[in-house]
Amino acid sequence: MPIGIDQLNFFTPSLYVDMIDLAKARNTDPNKYIIGIGQEKMGINPITQDAVSMGANAALPIVSEADKSKIDMVIFATESGTDYSKSGAVSIHRLLNINPFARAIEMKQACYSATAGIMMAKDYIASHPDRKVLVVGSDLARYGLNTAGEVTQGAGAVAMLISADPRIMTVSDETLPFTKDIFDFWRPNYSDTAMVDGKFSNEAYIQFFETVLHEYQRRYDFSLEELEALCFHLPYSKMGKKAMANELEKVSEETKNRILAHYEASILYTKNIGNIYTGSLYLGLASLLDNSQEISAGNKIGMFSYGSGAVGEFFVGELVQGFKKHLATKEHQQLLDERERLTIPEYEELFMEALPENGTSLKLSNRFDSAPIQLVEIRDHQRHYAFR
């Protein structure tokens, strides 16, 4: 029974910083950001958008009235959680008015956990083929003002409905995870910004990709020649290209050129939003499907998921007949086009805004925020979300 992605949508807040503006403010050559890192714009969240509200906004357009009664599980993947105990999935479940007899859980493993959510969803649907699972990956990537990682920040969420007989992409049963305890990137509970060993992080990413790919090839008699495209978790748009460089030297020139051409289509949204952690791989998939003119039904797409700390996984998806009719290409482009460009002082002011940590009540609003679902109030140590 084919199981996979039935619907796919992303959300990013209505604000961005232009990388040329940021480079000038940081006394840096803009080409270091635009060409060296491969980033053009950085998605910025107002205080009224956190991981939960962004996840709900990503899911809102793809959860129909009929779906609400069929969704048996809401899986919220994030490393930007808002509560040590209560899952953001519970809030998303309420906001979308999903069937009350459903599981709602939050998963964490850096940027990897949305993939774990998909695999869990597949297992559930295999024994409940008439049901669906909502998987949401949502995060705020923050490293601090005027830091080495500032240019790779971002904000956004991706939502996917997983079902039998999916209308976009089936996910193969042949998948391979790999885990190793390392410190390439982490964020202690007492810090609101991440810590990263930049050089080691890049090396670990490449090592994980090559390790899982080689073992996948050994176990499943697989070749990159079978793929139309490769999608990667993208902490910045150049990372996937670095990871596959050695492997592309082992394939035909035709395969190499094809995969590199599709890669350029897959990074367009990341270039304009930045790193969104758990949703990053699937933002790349959305970008590929929306922007590649050559991709077609029956094509196989290799998917490399990576979450620092670290867990990686490689699997293959296959596009189904008629998938293009179920893409939100026009809506995605409109979302990006309608964002407002912040000045650097405006960005720095928004970045420093913080929610109270002592139980103080606060009603929230932001003139920039036009999203349907927002964080509207802090009251009695509780976050309250509502439709605006």
Automatic annotation (TrEMBL):
Keywords: Transferase. Residues 3-165 form the Hydroxymethylglutaryl-coenzyme A synthase N-terminal domain. The active site is at E79, C111, H233. GO terms for biological process: acetyl-CoA metabolic process. One of its GO terms (molecular function) is hydroxymethylglutaryl-CoA synthase activity. (3S)-3-hydroxy-3-methylglutaryl-CoA binds at D29, Y143, K242, N275. Residues 178-245, 253-350 form the Hydroxymethylglutaryl-coenzyme A synthase C-terminal domain. PANTHER family: 3-HYDROXY-3-METHYLGLUTARYL COENZYME A SYNTHASE, HYDROXYMETHYLGLUTARYL-COA SYNTHASE. Belongs to the thiolase-like superfamily. HMG-CoA synthase family. This is Hydroxymethylglutaryl-CoA synthase. It comes from Vagococcus elongatus.
